[in-house]
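User: Please fill in residues for this 116-position structure.
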């Protein structure tokens, strides 16, 4: 059984920073799998924010390029999302995700609120 547990969300003022973490557990070789961060704002669909493949290459949606950085620590089975220069429109529940052995795993989500 695979579990993904996010942490690090909270309330931050515009222009501030947060770092989200997602710790994976279970019987799988973490190093081999692509890890994703999604977000879902109220009334909107869940959208991909950033992705990091096993070799470390990253993809970002246009709205976060230059502000967010995804990284991974394979020894800790953890993926991070460093979020800088946060904007009110970044407010959402952020989810960690990976497709492992054909199954789509999701964390429980962590709330990020950007407001003054």
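Assistant: Residues filled in for all 116 positions:
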């Amino acid at each position: 059984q695979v579990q993904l547990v996010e942490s690090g969300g909270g309330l931050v003022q515009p222009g501030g920073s947060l770092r989200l973490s997602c710790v994976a557990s279970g019987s799988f070789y973490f190093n081999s799998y692509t890890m994703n961060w999604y977000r879902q704002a109220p009334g909107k669909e869940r959208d991909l924010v950033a992705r990091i493949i096993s070799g470390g290459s990253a993809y970002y949606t246009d709205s976060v390029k230059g502000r967010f950085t995804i990284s991974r620590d394979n020894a800790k089975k953890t993926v991070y999302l460093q979020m800088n220069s946060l904007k009110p429109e970044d407010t959402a529940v952020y989810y960690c995700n990976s497709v492992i052995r054909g199954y789509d795993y999701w964390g429980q989500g962590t709330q990020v609120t950007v407001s003054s």
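For context: The two ends are 40 Å apart (CA to CA).
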